[in-house]
Amino acid sequence: MVTAAAALLCLGMQAGSAQAARGAPGFPWDELFGSRPHRAHKAVHRSAVPLPKARPAEAPAAADAPAGAEPEPPAAAAPPPAASAEAAGPGETAKPTEAARPAEPPRPQLSACRQALTEEIAIAPSIADIHGAGGCGGEDLVRLEAIVLPDKRKVAVKPAAILRCKMASAVADWVRTDIAPLAQGLGGGISNLDNFDSFECRGRNRVAGAQLSEHGRANALDVRAFGLANGKSISLTDRSVPRDLRETVLHSVCGRFSTVLGPGSDWYHEDHVHLDLTERRNNYRICQWNVYDPLPRVAPLLPAERPEEAPPREVAAKSDASKPDSSRTDGSKADRDKVDEPDAAKSDDAAAPDGAAETKPQPTKKRRQSRRL
């Protein structure tokens, strides 16, 4: 037994030396006795670690830091995408860091009208859409606060009007193009626009149960007057305002808006002018505004005074005694006729025979009087 074990040990040592020469692994017990040769490790791939940036010249000096405070170590720089991809296993893919953030909702795209209505034309910030009962409200709404004239002066809208963008753009263009040049020669130009009513969720003419008004769709504006730079106000329905001025405004609004209602249309619009952009079939328009003549300064209640060159009134100077007493003679004649009528009736009755009186009807007093006349 001892001899067999020694023989095997010798054979193992010879085989180990041969395998070591070939570089092949030996028996498991070779490592116990330290007879296994040392193997070189694989080359380590080092990733490039970014260095911190140089301290800027304008940064405060280190002496400004409070005493006893230790400088904070530089934060570890995030590995580049390539390094993170290499660090991940072959079966794994690097996840983007932005995937954890919630996606922002897309911003609503501005309409063409909203993009065209800039601050160089009007001060009209956008407001949220309104969706009320019965179709009340609208979309693409603005609050028209002021209109900017070509010379950069602002015409305030008092109070600010809530309108659709298209209606606000039409009002701004009307004031900039037509009203501003018209008011320039009156009192230094236009300074404000009197807004009587804009958006209001109601029926037409505020009648309960009536069809929804264009005011309920934010598509109408009621204008009562516009103020001038000198402090005066010009009312569009005031009959004391020159007629040619009111007619010029009439032709201006009827050419721009699809509906114009003023004095003469109904008694709801006697003190203001209604403007809207209602879309009708075949582009039908309504323009009902009667421009009345100015009221006379003195009411023609009394006759005019008699001019000095008129001839004297000679007829009025005569006395009543010189006039013929025609009424008195006519009255006496009528009295005589009344007295004679009964006697004539009696004579006629006496002359008629008895038989004729019974069969022939007696004529009435009215018939006898007409026959006599």
Please describe what this structure looks like.
This is Extensin family protein. Helix 4 runs antiparallel to helix 5. Strands 1, 2, 5, 6, 7, 8, 9, 10, 11 and 12 form a 10-stranded mixed β-sheet that branches. The chain has a domain at 113-236. The protein has 8 helices and 12 strands. Strand 3 (130-131) and strand 4 form a beta hairpin. The longest helix has 26 residues, at 326-351. Helix content is 29%, strand content 15%. The protein has 373 residues and is of the alpha+beta class. Residues 82-92 and 344-358 have low confidence and may be disordered.
Gist of the model:
29% of the residues lie in helices and 15% in strands. With 373 residues, the protein is α+β, with helices and mostly antiparallel strands.
Descriptive keywords:
single chain; 373 residues; alpha+beta; ten-stranded mixed sheet; two-stranded antiparallel sheet; 8 helices; 12 strands; 29% helix; 15% strand
Give the CA-based shape.
elongated
Give a short account of the largest sheet.
10 strands, mixed
Radius of gyration: 57 Å
From the helix content, strand content and strand pairing, which structural class follows? alpha+beta
The pLDDT mean sits at 76
Strand runs, count: 12
Separation of termini? 192 Å
Order of helices and strands: HHHEEEEEEHEEEHEEEHHH
Q: Can you count the helices?
A: 8
Low-confidence stretches: 82-92, 344-358
Report the β-strand fraction as a percent range: 15-25%
Task: Kindly state the percentage of residues in helix.
Answer: 25-40%
Protein name: Extensin family protein
Organism: Bradyrhizobium quebecense
